[in-house]
Amino acid sequence: MFPNFIIIGAMKCGTSSLYHYLQLHPELGMSAIKEVDFFIEENNYNKGISWYQSQFQGDFKIFGEASPNYSKAHYFKGVPRRMYELVPRAKLIYLVRDPIERIISHYTHNYSEGREHRSIEDALQELEDNHYVMCSKYFWQLQHYFEFFQEDQMLIIPSYRLRDERRATLQQIFKFLGVDDSFYSNDFEQQMHKTNKKRRKGKLSRFILESPVIKTLKGYIPDSVKDPVKKAIRPEVTKPELSSATRVKLQEYLHADVDRLRTFSGLSLDGWEL
């Protein structure tokens, strides 16, 4: 069994929430793990097709997965080609968010995980080929799929619509996927991964939390146990503020890409800074 649709990103745009909501639909079977990353050579591609098929189990009309790393073409090469070779008729869903807000969220995530040690201003000193910025160049990322997939195989969803107009947005997605778009669950009202105060991993906490034993066990440990441990060993992280100069620099750098996304998608993207 192979997926009929794939959520290709973007990172920090609500892919975890959408994965959860789609799991609730009785006709949709989502992958056993959320971020399968199969089409990424450096990650799970070498595990083989049988391993990928094993991620899709059950009696469902269609299957899907969600791997935000699929829209990091500057970092992981060849994803659209591998995807097309295996599932050429798959439908693609791309969640997007205000590019600058996504960059701040991405930076905060990396900083809290202990992978980023610079200030946000230092991290954005150079914008060309900057990982944070490239992940927010949504049209540029999509262009890598145009060579293989047709436009009618792609659906672009602004994350604010999934947050503020959830029922209508999910109906749009269900219709795009060809399943019952009248389905509704009270669990759709739950906002997944609502932003809480981030906590930064230090060397000790990284050593503890990323050890093979803890990685294996943490999926079975309830939050009531994990949360006090996190508070004890991880200091709080405050969301950083961009300087006016850096914000303007980002607006100017990303403006053309956002304009191309608007033209391609027909979306107004109201509320974005650019």
UniProtKB/TrEMBL annotation:
<dbReference type="InterPro" id="IPR027417">
    <property type="entry name" value="P-loop_NTPase"/>
</dbReference>
<keyword id="KW-0808">Transferase</keyword>
<dbReference type="InterPro" id="IPR000863">
    <property type="entry name" value="Sulfotransferase_dom"/>
</dbReference>
<dbReference type="Pfam" id="PF00685">
    <property type="entry name" value="Sulfotransfer_1"/>
</dbReference>
<protein>
    <submittedName>
        <fullName>Sulfotransferase domain-containing protein</fullName>
    </submittedName>
</protein>
<feature type="domain" description="Sulfotransferase">
    <location>
        <begin position="4"/>
        <end position="198"/>
    </location>
</feature>
<keyword id="KW-0325">Glycoprotein</keyword>
<dbReference type="InterPro" id="IPR037359">
    <property type="entry name" value="NST/OST"/>
</dbReference>
